[in-house]
Amino acid sequence: MDYRALATEAAKYKDVLSEIRRELHQIPEFGLELPKTQERILKSIHGLGTIVLGKKLHSIALLIEGDNPGPTVLLRADMDALAVVEDTDEPFKSTNGYMHACGHDLHMAIGIGAAHLLRTHKDNLHGNVVIFFQPGEEGHGGADVMLEEGAHLISGEKPIGAYGIHVFSGMMPRGSFASKAGAMMASAGDLLVTVKGRGGHGSSPWMAKDPITPLVEMISALPNFITKNFNVFDAVVVNVGWLDAGDTHTTNVVPETASFGATVRTFSKEHYDKLRALTPGFLQGIAQAHGVEVEVEFNNATKVLINDKEAVERVERVVNSTVGEGRYFTMDTPMAGGEDMASIIDELGGAFVFMGASKSDNFMESEINHSNKAVFDDSVLPDGAAVLAALAFNALSEAVGQP
Question: pLDDT grade, residue 403 (50/70/90)?
Answer without folding.
Answer: confident
